[in-house]
Write a structure and sequence with these properties.
single chain; mainly alpha
Length: 112
């Protein structure tokens, strides 16, 4: 909730920054609560976003519309990669990955 409030307040100063903040917050929710994205994929997304956003802020290129569009495309690619993993345990895992319990048991046994 505080992120949304911050975005509303930030919109009074700069609408692009407010949109970038909301975009980031939405991805945090998507990655952590919906897809249960693996840490390396989360960090890859974050690094790409920081590079593109920094470039947009510091030199004005690419514009925010391109930065957010490119990151949306990266999001789709990473989401597909995550959902196709044998360890996928996010939303709808029972349909997408019905073999997860067997994978989980096999990996838990190999660690003990």
């Amino acid at each position: 909730m505080s992120g949304i409030l911050a975005s509303v307040l930030l919109a009074r100063v700069d609408k692009s920054f407010a949109l970038a903040l909301l975009f980031t917050l939405a991805h945090f929710f998507l990655f952590c609560n919906v897809l249960r994205m693996s840490r390396p994929l989360e960090l890859l997304w974050a690094a790409l976003f920081v590079v593109l956003a920094a470039s947009t802020i510091l030199v004005g290129f690419p514009p925010w519309s391109y930065t957010l569009s490119a990151m949306l495309a990266v999001t789709v690619i990473l989401a597909v990669v995550q959902v196709l993993r044998p360890s996928y345990h996010g939303v709808l895992w029972q349909r997408v990955n019905p073999d997860l319990p067997q994978w989980w048991d096999a990996n838990r046994k190999s660690r003990t």
